[in-house]
From TrEMBL, chains A, B:
It comes from Murinocardiopsis flavida. Its main location: cytoplasm. Keywords: Cytoplasm, DNA-binding, Iron, Metal-binding, Repressor, Transcription, Transcription regulation, Zinc. This is Fur family ferric uptake transcriptional regulator. GO terms for biological process: negative regulation of DNA-templated transcription; regulation of secondary metabolite biosynthetic process. PANTHER family: TRANSCRIPTIONAL REGULATOR FURA, ZINC UPTAKE REGULATION PROTEIN. GO terms for molecular function: DNA-binding transcription factor activity; transcription cis-regulatory region binding; zinc ion binding.
Amino acid sequence: MDDATDLREAGLRVTAARLAILEAVRAGDHSDAEHIARDVRAKVGHVSTQAVYDALHALTGARLLRRIEPAGSAARYEARVGDNHHHLVCRRCGAVADTDCVVGLAPCLVPSDTHGFTVDEAEVVFWGVCPQCQVGSGDPRGDGAAKRAP
Amino acid sequence: MDDATDLREAGLRVTAARLAILEAVRAGDHSDAEHIARDVRAKVGHVSTQAVYDALHALTGARLLRRIEPAGSAARYEARVGDNHHHLVCRRCGAVADTDCVVGLAPCLVPSDTHGFTVDEAEVVFWGVCPQCQVGSGDPRGDGAAKRAP
DNA sequence: TCCTTTTCTTGAGTCACTCCAGTTTGTGTA
DNA sequence: TACACAAACTGGAGTGACTCAAGAAAAGGA
């Protein structure tokens, strides 16, 4: 798969910044905007934070990236799109891991009572403690699920 | 059930503000902090925003309230605690509705691969469109999820 | 190569909290 | 009832994560 082609097919222009963002998201593991911006800058030099947000929005809109937002932390981005998978989030350090959908198709679950809503997606977040934090048993970063410390 | 007793049992002091907050959360349907603060002020006169946040934290910590945070909107609070239910969220106006858990006990789902995480809760959010928004097909101006544009 | 449209930059602004230090108040004890 | 003290509250400042706006730069079709 070629990023430039993907961008063009989505009707977006191909720029070094976007290519770098796509690459950074793929390399990073559910990175947040700040993290991605840092990676991109390391690759292509100066890129403004706003440009990163803008690109992230465009890429998310074009379904080239997926945005997830676990409660209590900033938005994260991942390159795994097109399938309907869910996430494991660590309550202590905020680490995120993918886990496959139990059912396969969205919405993979049906609520017991829809209250008249037309449901098109079921988002499942599994809260728990990651292996690293289990080992370090104490709170490795104090701040709970807040800001993420890799 | 008596709110004052609940507070005392949780080791919290009983104040007019806290009682009003509990009542406001119960009356409102998944209100956010701003909303709750307004209701509380209407009831007991002046209460600072910080006092509201502080009380909301204390009450959430004491399991008298539950905090939910749908992506893209501010934290909401609800008084239904103790059971493991899930939420329906409207993509247009941000309205939130409860739906019972299909299983009953947390975690009601088990991920296909835990990646070593010890999972204690599965949070399920069903995204869709509420009845009002289906009818008005535009944005009805729900009290809203604030910033989520259609 | 030119021109249009999209992207990016700089800078200011907003929202939803959080932190801090000092004051007030609810409660258990005397 | 009075008192002491920790919990609760106040006002103000600060922070992180974005969002908005306007002008400059770059991509890509003609």
